[in-house]
């Protein structure tokens, strides 16, 4: 029975990386492989983080990026009476065009089911008016 308890204690010590290979302990776990870094896609990043359009029919371009992802993106706007979204001018870029004053959201999706949200604000302002 003493051998079994000693064996269990040794395995527990090894798994907790608290023992060395003998000779007084220390040194950490020997022979335990380091996990490889993850190369799976991350979250979708849109830049700039929001679109602010100040006149009609103003437009702005934003870019979608996702680490470790080489597929395509699609975009849809929540309210086409406020703004429209089209692909381009470059790959992974989208153009948002103001239609009327209001707030909307552009949903950017990849082919893996990930989604990013790009807030859109359309206002009209008179800068410097007295």
Structure described in brief:
This protein has 130 residues and is mostly beta strands.
For the biggest sheet, the summary is: 4 strands, antiparallel
Q: How many E strands?
A: 8
Overall pLDDT level: 79
The sequence of SSEs as H and E is HEEEEEEEE
Beta-strand proportion: 35-45%
Count of alpha and pi helical runs:
1
Q: What is the CA-CA span between the terminal residues?
A: 93 Å
Output the CATH class name of the largest domain.
Mainly Beta
Overall radius of gyration: 27 Å
CATH topology of the largest domain: Immunoglobulin-like
Structural class, from helix and strand content? mainly beta
Helix content: 10-25%
Main β-sheet, spatial strand arrangement: 1-3-6-5
Q: Please tell me the total number of domains.
A: 2
Shape: elongated
- The CATH architecture of the largest domain is Sandwich
Low-confidence stretches: 1-23
